[in-house]
Amino acid sequence: MRELGIGLIGTGFMGRAHALAFRNVSAVFELPLKLNLAALADADPQRARHCADAWGFATAHSDWQQLIDDPKVNLIAITTPNHLHYPMAMAALAAGKAVYCEKPLAVSLEQASAMREAARSAGVVTRVGYNYQHNPMIVLARELIKNGELGEIISFQGEFSEDFMADPTSPWSWRCDPNHAGGALADLGSHLLSMARYLIGEVEAVCADTQTVHSQRPESPGSTVLKPIAIDDQVHALLRFANGARGTFSSSWLKHGYKNHLSFEISGTRGTLAFDQERLNELRLFRAGQDGFQRLLAGPNLPGYAAFSPAPGHQLGYNELKTLEVHDLIMALAGDSRGGTDFEQAWAVERLATAIRLAAREQRWVRIEEV
Fold first, then answer.
1. How far is Cα 351 from Cα 109, in angstroms, rounded to an integer?
2. Average pLDDT, stretch 209-237?
3. Are 307 and 29 in contact (CB under 8 A)?
4. What's the start-to-end Cα distance of the chain, in Å?
5. Helix axis angle, 343-362 relative to 190-199, nearest 10°?
6. pLDDT at residue 338, as a whole number
7. How large a percentage of the chain has pLDDT more than 70?
8. CA–CA distance, 179 with 101 (Å, rounded to integer)
9. In this model, does residue 1 exceed pLDDT 80?
10. Which residues contact 354 (CB under 8 A, 6 or more apart)?
11. Residue 237 pairs with which residues in a beta bridge?
């Protein structure tokens, strides 16, 4: 069995999620590769060492380039703030190593395009952290759509809202810097755009509006010094899909009461399908002629669910979706690609987000081919 050396950059929420997934995947699946948690990197050397010991990584680095250069590392997992995705991924690709990068792919379409081309040239496996698409219920939704259960798809209504930035006194962070991040559209909306493409197909044109609601925030907790904000707090868009369907898209990180409201309703000529990530183990399906919506509950009839539990109703969670994403990545590295979100697909999401920003700025319909 060939050994796969894993190098993890970043130790925040997503770093921990990746570490859990890499540790759990071998317990859940029979893998064609043996995983070796080879190295971990964080700018704080003490934290790097602490997390490496706690999470089971053999080596700790305070310089991410040293991790990429480590001969024991074959796969680079990038879980840093957005602006670091580009230099880290480009260095990893230049070294001929596979890359597993958190979303969004980059902070600009120019960077995303360069990463896409570098991945093509390197010929290595790449994946981007759109883990919600690995939910067995989302896979089921796609199958229902493809099998014609809804008839011809005519409408997509999607929203991804949270409230972690709703308090105007919450301090400025890297997420508020347009050079480091991309507002609610990049942070949350990119997940929904990727989901829309996964379920419905390509978008051919958009019309949009974005808004910065809180134009300044304290520079640090409790500070009276305010820093200006130039990124979007919320975005709304109309979508025209290549297959003729029409759609609405919205994303906000100011919407009180919502914690992970990645939701959609997809309507066709024969029915409607609805999902909400806050109830991630179920779908609601309405077929024409029924009296109401049918509740479809996740269970062992779905392979992704059955890998974790033989009993229905026991529920999967966020970290299980991350484990399913890592399993897809490892199978691709073993030569059994299952069509996950690679740099090519993630670039298409960035292109779509760029078109939405252009449409909002110029207040007009923008065809994606213009971008």
1. 6
2. 95
3. yes
4. 45
5. 110
6. 78
7. 100
8. 18
9. no
10. 109, 371
11. 208, 249
Tell me, what amino acid is at 282? E
User: Under a CB-based contact definition with an 8 Å cutoff, are residues 140 and 306 in contact?
Assistant: no
Q: What residues does 227 pair with on adjacent strands?
A: 217
**Residue 124 corresponds to which tokens in the numbers above?**
């290595």
Residue with tokens 């859940």: 28
* 233: amino acid identity, one letter: D
Q: Are 302 and 316 in contact (CB under 8 A)?
A: no
Q: Specify the pLDDT at position 46.
A: 97
Rounded Cα distance between 304 and 138, Å, is 11
Q: What's at 261, amino acid-wise? A: H
CB atoms within 10 A of CB 174: 13
The token pair that represents 317 in the structure block: 């969670």
Does residue 203 contact residue 215 with C-beta atoms inside 8 Å?
no
At 287, the amino acid letter reads R
Count H helices and E strands in the chain, helices first. Answer: 11, 17
Structural domains of the chain, ranges and CATH numbers in brackets: 2-131 (3.40.50.720), 135-316+341-370 (3.30.360.10)
pTM to 2 decimals?
Answer: 0.96
In b/e form, how buried is each residue of 42-80, taking b as 16+ CB within 10 angstroms?
beeeeebbebbeebebebbbeebeebbebeebbbbbbbb
Q: What single-letter amino acid sits at 342?
A: D
